[in-house]
Amino acid sequence: MSATLSESESKRLLSNFGVPFLPETLATNSAQAVEFSLGFAGPFALKLCGSNIAHKSERGLVCLGVSGAESIRRTCQQLLDAARPEDNATGVLIAPMATGLREFIAGISVDPVFGPTVVFGLGGVLAEAIADVTVRLAPLRRYDAIDMLHSLRSQSLFGSFRSETPIDLDALADLLCALSKASSEIPDLVSIDLNPVMIVDGLPVALDALVEVGTHAVSA
Amino acid sequence: MISAEHFKALFDPRSIVVAGASTHPGKFGFVALHNILSCGYGGNVYATNRERAEVLGLQTYADLTEIPDGVVDLVFVCTPASTNPELLRQAAAKGIRAAFIASAGYGESGEDGKELQHQLVELADELNLLIVGPNGQGLVSTPSKLCAQIVAPYPPAGRIGIASQSGNFVSSFMNLSRQSGVGVSRAISVGNAAQVGVIDMLEFYADDPETAVGLVYLEGVANGREFADRLAAVCRRMPVVIVKGGASGSGAKAAASHTGSLATDDRVFDGMCRQVGATRAASIAEAFDAAAAFATLPAPAGPRLAIVTTVGGWGVLAADATATTNLELVDVPSDLRSRLDGLLPPRWSRNNPIDLAGGETKDTVPDVLEAVVGHSEIDAVLVLGMGIQSNQGKLEREGPFYPDHGLERIVNFHDRQDSRYVDVAMQASATSGTPVLIASELSIADPTNAAVSAVRGAGRYCFPSAERAVKALHFMHERERWLKSFEIEPTSTN
């Protein structure tokens, strides 16, 4: 048996290991969301956050491109009102929207034969069809992290793709090393999913995170 | 505990006994004895047969209790599974340290067989006996001229150590060894790998002075993490080339029924290989190319490749082949270019590939090879077009005009020139420590060709094509890069 941490808990846990995320806050009421928004240019992404929310997008619990205090307040309240008891909702996550053309996926998954592995691949809507994914056993050496990047077939995305800034490969390797570290230190880890990891101004930032741990670790 | 002495008993036994020798030439118990007696093994050979029948001129014993004490190290077992526990006890009592078990009827044949196999391992552990198999095809050990297997061929001596989960691929690799002349030190089919498996063999090879490279066919591993850690330790000491069956979904299904392997995502296995420094080849041919390269060539100091070709087309395709590798087709260094200007007609390519444009005096090729191989800014050299002169010579020698019209003289000259070119290249490689790869389909089309024979005579591998040579060199460079990475980063950062 396993259980997932909420997005907010997942991110807090992983940022301790150096996984880069956007600045965000978990608002328990709409005033907090508005207050947070004042520090940024916007627009903002708002998501209902809880440890047991299935089909987040299908249920309309992810709102993108929200700007202006009034609409942030309204959206936040709508999301809080939409929460069902089984969601274990803890609030609404609000973060400034990130824009970038290049998306990757990264994570930890446990192979039945080889144990914990670090996974890195091309993200975005065509990712499944293109299936450009590379895997290494955790823990990684930095050499392995760099080698993972070079193992991807979609190398041309790393340069100044469609006039975007070239990707800082050291920063991307840092992210993979951070996942590797997390995999050795989080007790009873089942999986980590960072999807997407967006490249913003050449640097990777994880827009979503999901950590799954064995129930033993949760109750402990 | 299984120790180095057990493996010594397996691969270099003082004497050997075949249990279950048969008078029927179609039976394993006949073939195994035949092969041991036929390939020059120097120790005493004993055999058991229930009726004490004479087999291949050898007087057999009824069972192991009748053979001399303390002189036999290895028993090759061809007897039915049900009789093997008693046989192992008798073997241990005679001081035998290792058993190769060819008998079937174990883990590969269902639940009862699995139980028998489990009991066999427990017994072997208790008797301090190394057992390989069951359900294996045998082993080869050229330092002892030992061909203890129920299949062919017996390969030439050399430095490749083969370990395989499928006996047939041991044969495949050894057939390629015979064809190319690049020899084998040890080869073993681990069968069901009940007590020891491929990784145990690789650990022995890594410490074995006779073996320079491990060549492996694998379908699956049981304890992946332990396998990876042990393989990483082996790869620090010796290159290992792996072909893995079951890379696709349907291949994995076939592997599960063949060796009972658990399916793992092929990308995990692939990443593991890169991480632990093992060379993963896509096919048996590619694997043998890589193993032959590791076994016979000095390691490249870097990625800078020069291609020398006597005529254009070959160089073009070879250059194309480098595009998907980590090798760099470097510009011809300016001092080398000036030197080549002095040796070649003005129409030479003046670029890499270095195309000699057919502009040759009898010393052009050797002079160019000497200039290129060992240049400080070139890490490896691929030579194409060797053997074409003697190939024409062959046509002339076999034609209706030979030996008249001056043909005898020119044909001999062609042969001498081709072998001289190769000798010069090999000599320059030995002096400079720069790997020189010679590629020609003549290695398959006409192994008697003067250039091909000269490569073989130098103990090197004549690659069947430029693409295959480039791929093998790519693997060598990958390994060098991996080895060097430990100088700056010994272990994981976690």
What's the rounded overall pLDDT mean of chain B?
94
CATH class category label of the largest domain in chain B = Alpha Beta
Please report the total strand number of chain B as a whole number.
20
Q: Tell me the strand percentage band of chain A.
A: 25-35%
CATH homologous superfamily (4th level) name of the largest domain in chain A? ATP-grasp fold, B domain
Can you count the helices of chain A? 7
Strand order of the largest sheet of chain B: 9-8-11-10-12-13-14
Q: SSE order of chain A in H/E notation?
A: EHEHEEHEEEHEHHEEEH
Task: Walk me through what this model shows.
Chain A has helices at about 5-15, 30-35, 70-80, 125-130, 140-150, 170-185, 215-220; strands at about 1-5, 25, 45-50, 60-65, 90-95, 105-110, 115-120, 135, 190-200, 205, 210-215. The longest helix of chain A has 17 residues, at about 170-185. Chain A folds into two domains: about 25-95, Dna Ligase, domain 1, CATH 3.30.1490; about 105-220, D-amino Acid Aminotransferase, Chain A, domain 1 (2-Layer Sandwich), CATH 3.30.470.20. In chain A, α2 packs antiparallel against α3 and α5 (about 140-150) packs across α6. Chain A is built from seven helices and eleven strands. The mean pLDDT of chain A is about 90. In chain A, β9 and β10 (about 205) form a beta hairpin. In chain A, strands 1, 6, 7, 8, 9, 10 and 11 form a seven-stranded antiparallel β-sheet that branches. Chain A has a four-stranded antiparallel β-sheet with strand order 2-5-3-4, covered by helices on one side. With about 220 residues, chain A is of the alpha+beta class. Chain B is an alpha/beta fold. Chain B has three domains: about 1-135, Rossmann fold, CATH 3.40.50.720; about 155-295, Rossmann fold (3-Layer(aba) Sandwich); about 300-480, 3-Layer(aba) Sandwich (Rossmann fold). In chain B, strands 9-8-11-10-12-13-14 form a seven-stranded mixed β-sheet, sandwiched between helices. In chain B, strands 15, 16, 17, 18, 19 and 20 form a six-stranded parallel β-sheet that branches. Chain B has a five-stranded parallel β-sheet with strand order 2-1-5-6-7, with helices on both faces. In chain B, α4 links the parallel β6 and β7 (about 130). The longest helix of chain B is centred in the C-terminal third of the chain and has 26 residues, at about 405-430. Chain B starts with a helix and ends in a 6-residue tail after the last helix. The mean pLDDT of chain B is about 95. The interface of A and B includes residues 115, 143 and 181 of A.
